[in-house]
Write the structure tokens for this entry.
Amino acid sequence: MIDLHQRSAGVLLHLTSLPGPHGIGDFGPGAYQFVDWLATAGQHLWQWLPINPIGPGDSPYQSVSAFAGSPLMVALEPLIAAGWLLQPALPDGGFDSDRVDFTRVVPWRLAQLRRAARGFFARADAAEQAAFAHWCAAQASWLDDYTLFMALEEAHSGAAWWHWQPELRDRVPAALAAARSEHAEAIRFWQFVQWCFDNQACALKAYANQRQVSLMGDLPIFIAHHSADCWARPDLYYLDENFQPTVVAGCPPDAMAPTGQRWGNPLYRWERMAAENYAWWTARLKRALHQADVFRIDHFRGFAGYYEIPASCPTAEEGEWVAGPGKALFDAIGAELGELPIVAEDLGLITTDVIELRDGCGFPGMKILQFGFASDAGDEFLPHNYVRHCVAYTGTHDNDTVRGWWHKASARERAYAGSYLATSETDVHWAMIRACWNSVANIAVCQFQDVLGLDGGHRMNIPGTMGGHNWSWRFRWDMVGSEPARVLGLITAASGRGPFALLGLPGAAAAAPELAAKAA
């Protein structure tokens, strides 16, 4: 597993952006090929976005479950190889290789998974059936509620859980037992999907680790209102007698958003979670570490203090800051799970209490190089001001690509960046990568789009917007070639973040064995 205190480097690329024939990137052959590419380029980290089921706007940050995996990421090739699914026929015209067309991909992929489930339950041998049953029993603490939730959502034509029949909405035990019996087949389907997801995720993790590549997951701080988590434990959230939030999450007004950001997530009743020694959070992080080696927590500042907006307010203008659980939460989790390999997303309005919590927990924060050129040499996002215990990024999934940033930056920012990085538009992506890699930051990460030198048309997400091309970007292997891995490998080796032998210098492997071993 990657050591967050040692120099290393990696690439940010969501699984859905991988190439593949079935409309969206998944745990199939493309994922293994990308691990091999990372190893060739001397990288030791592959960072993902959340791998939970997508929600409104196709966002991975608004999921129906904090524990379940996305059905869209279940690769079909292993199901075909197991004999549970026949080679599926693609829709007329196939799928777009450059973008995920969710309106076409989602129903088609679910139809294939349903066929595979029927094949499994009809033809799986005794050992496979036993492995499935054992896994379902081991994961019952979250799986039982999630699978029933999905079956009931389908039975109610997608209606939100607070609109279900009162006895199901209120989780009356007899009604739940009757529903489990009535929807047994649908429940078994969703169990099968999650079993496949878990097996494939763990297989990819093992393959990556064997090649000295660690996986970094992403954990959103809040859960969605329409989710199995909220339905299963409504008492852990600020909800009224009709199960509607009384207060919701968001961010206060600023220069970029004059009325603030109203995310709408229900807020946790932290005192009730504390009374249970934060058991829900411990289970959630344990699940995350089952599928990844390290993970980034989104909106980390919310654990120190979060912005609470009255649900009746249509904007975020009337909110107030409320104290979060602080270090007690992470102490309780650490007591159960040991040292926590967490990267704190500490961007935005960061106050002293957030810094104290981050440093008190020993978590590295994040530095975004694209943010560094708006002021002067004292800017905290410029590499000469970094501290060792941080993760340096050229940009994240919420930023433009480097070349996209360059085109949209002010003339002053471009002039400053050009002078600081000794670069021009032609190779600004390599200059930014080199600056992050040469910094003192222990970990350096860039978007795969920046390794390929792609423009803003390949951006993954524009925060605060819905629809458009958000979350849909994919690459093709014919866009890559051999040069990006070679150049990234040279930069990685020269900066002490990868095997020094990648430089290809005479006697390099023999001259610096200690450096090479440390970097590996």
Remarks:
- The longest helix spans residues 184-210.
- Residues 510-520 have pLDDT under 50 and may be disordered.
- The chain is about 40% helix and 10% strand.
- The first strand starts at residue 8 and ends at 12.
